[in-house]
Specification:
Blueprint lengths: L21 E4 L11 E5 L2 E7 L2 E5 L13 E5 L5 E5 L11 E5 L2 E5 L5 E2 L13 E5 L17 E2 L9 H4 L25 H8 L7 E2 L3 E5 L7 E7 L4 E10 L8 E5 L4 E4 L6 E4 L4 E7 L7 E9 L10 E4 L20 E6 L7 E3 L16 E6 L4 E5 L6 E3 L4 E7 L1
Parallel strand pairs: 12-14, 21-22
Antiparallel strand pairs: 1-3, 2-5, 3-4, 6-8, 7-10, 8-9, 11-18, 13-20, 14-19, 15-18, 15-20, 16-17, 16-19, 22-27, 23-26, 24-25, 24-27
Keywords: Secreted
Protein name: ATS13 metalloproteinase
GO molecular function: metalloendopeptidase activity
Length: about 400
């Protein structure tokens, strides 16, 4: 090209539009488990390059469908011991709802033979009892599960006083209490108020008073769930005052607690259900509009102690969780627990702001936090100095502080 005149060098801007926002992933943090399968948390942020600099942007500006996972599986080493289980037993009932059980035993990963369960006591264990259904019962049979028994009671001659009926707000949630049977005795002119209050939506609420009446008739939703909560030292009993459920149409009432599970439809009126603990979930499933039940609940001091002295009970909507302190006279092998119950319409989010469970590299250190989602009975274990964010699928969670 020497004989040809060389043109001058030029630089032209080819594109003035900034690059679109993209996802940025930082290296994953420590594994949540010292052995076996765990989870590692990685920070995912939305960034954009502007004038050669990386600028943090709001997440909705990045493509949602392409967002990387914030938790990734990790394995540090194979566990020396692990829980193993037998096959599930047959359903405990020939019809309706019952339970299935299975045996658990500690297994050595080297010899694949059972060993003393003490070797597995620091590892989370899956459930050994679950619900089952053996098909519908006939008209003469009642659907009962071994979790609780229905007990006949005499009709209540005095449900509440008009003065008590006017105490219409839950102090903890500021939620109006549902309509009760006392409104049927109101003079002429109260029908409109009664009609409005009878359709007041109680679904999804958490009731924390010592006693009350819950009207679940005429609700708009097909599935209506309420929760009742009291301090740990108490237990809850529920009386079915009225029931218009259509059993042949598949309408049913379900009760669930930490130590019982019960479902039924027939022979509900004037029956008594004991929760045996301080929380109770009531779920009503209706098909025909207007059907439902009216409940009266009461609380009393528990007949048996079902909790440890270092256990704690928390109710929503927010709070701070600290490691429970054991009393000097308590056994050191006691596992301290924190129970969290929120309104059924809400979910639980637990963020660890500061954790120090001992050296991360020492795999013989058995300090860890176990978080259990009560609705699915799935557990997650956190160790070391890991900060984490855990979210529930239901309205109840349990936290165990080990060692």
């Amino acid at each position: 090209c020497q004989p040809v005149p060389k043109p001058e060098s030029r630089v032209e801007v080819c594109d003035l539009n900034p690059c679109p926002p993209r996802w940025k992933v930082t290296p994953a943090g420590p594994c949540s488990s010292s052995c076996g399968l765990g989870l590692a948390v990685q920070l995912v942020t939305c960034v954009q390059i502007l004038h050669g600099q990386e600028v943090l942007q709001e997440e909705h500006l990045c493509p949602v469908a392409e967002k990387p996972l914030t938790s990734v599986p990790c394995v540090i080493r194979t566990c020396s011991y692990e829980w193993s289980f037998s096959e599930w037993s047959e359903c405990s009932t020939s019809c309706g709802n019952g339970i299935q059980t299975r045996q658990d035993f500690c297994l050595s990963s080297l010899t694949h033979k059972p060993v003393n369960p003490l070797f597995c006591r620091h590892f989370p264990k899956a459930i050994v009892v679950r619900g089952c259904s053996a098909g519908p019962c006939s008209e003469q049979e009642e659907t009962l599960s071994p979790g609780a028994q229905l007990q006949p009671v005499t009709p209540a001659t005095h449900l509440t006083t008009p003065a008590a009926a006017t105490e219409h707000r839950n102090k903890d949630l500021d939620v109006p209490l549902p309509a009760g049977p006392w409104e049927q005795t109101q003079p002429s002119g109260g029908e409109e108020i009664m009609a409005k209050r009878s359709f007041l939506c109680v679904c999804g609420n958490l009731f924390l008073n010592a006693t009350g009446i819950i009207n679940m008739t005429g609700v708009e939703s097909r599935d209506c769930t309420v929760a009742i909560g009291r301090p740990l030292r108490e237990e809850i009993s529920v009386t079915i005052l009225e029931s218009s459920l259509n059993c042949s149409a598949g309408e049913v009432l379900l009760f669930s607690g930490r130590m019982m599970w019960r479902t039924g439809c027939r022979k509900l009126p004037l029956s008594l259900i004991n929760s045996r603990t301080n929380t109770l979930i009531v779920k009503q499933r209706v098909v025909l509009p207007g059907n439902g039940v009216i409940l009266q609940y009461n609380s009393r001091t528990a007949t048996k102690k079902y909790y440890q002295d270092c256990d704690q009970q928390l109710f929503g909507p927010q709070g701070e969780i600290v490691t429970p302190v054991q009393l000097p006279d308590e056994r050191q092998e006691v596992v301290c627990r924190t129970f969290i119950t929120v309104a059924p319409r809400q979910r639980i989010s637990i963020r660890a702001l500061n954790t120090d469970l001992g050296p991360e590299g020492n795999h013989t250190h058995f300090n860890y936090i176990l978080v259990r989602d009560v609705s699915t009975m799935k557990t997650v274990v956190f160790r070391g100095k890991q900060q984490f964010l855990w979210q529930s699928t239901g309205s109840q969670a349990e936290i165990e502080f080990h060692e």
